[in-house]
Amino acid sequence: MANFPTKHQSSLPTPRKIRRGCSKELYRTVKRLGLYIPNELLQQGESLYYKKVIGNLLWIGENRSNRKVLADWWDQEVSAELAELWQVDREKLSSAFRAAFGG
To answer: Positive or negative, the Cα torsion across 82, 101, 30, 61?
Structure first.
């Protein structure tokens, strides 16, 4: 049997795409929060989020089309540390992320 190319199956994103995606998602989240986050804290938050995504890349790749599941993962894995770093309410941060992310 010949191996046919898988037309609708895409490969995992590159680290550059992941970093840019994390940055965009957090930018949109901060915008919806309506708070000022200093640039240094924003970069630390992006780094934290990026590391979490890289650590769970295979699972995230498998669930890339299910935004609700990805937003639930973000709530469990990222929101607590990010809320503590930025000193904001976790519930407000989670709802702002869901509004920005679409989950």
So the answer is: positive
SS3 percent helix, strand, coil of the chain, rounded to 5, is 70, 0, 30
Q: Which two tokens stand for residue 101?
A: 């992310």
HSE-CB at 10 with a 13 A cutoff on CA atoms is: 8
Rounded to whole angstroms, the Cα distance separating 56 from 83 reads 20
Q: Where are the beta strands (DSSP E) in the chain?
A: none
How far CA 14 is from CA of 17, 18, 21, 49, 74, in Å, comes to: 5, 6, 11, 15, 20
Report the distance separating Cα 42 and Cα 61, nearest Å.
25
Helix 67-77, helix 79-86: angle, nearest 10: 50
* Nearest CA among 46, 56, 98 for reference residue 77: 56
For the stretch 64-97, pLDDT in tens is: 899 999 999 999 999 999 999 999 999 999 999 9
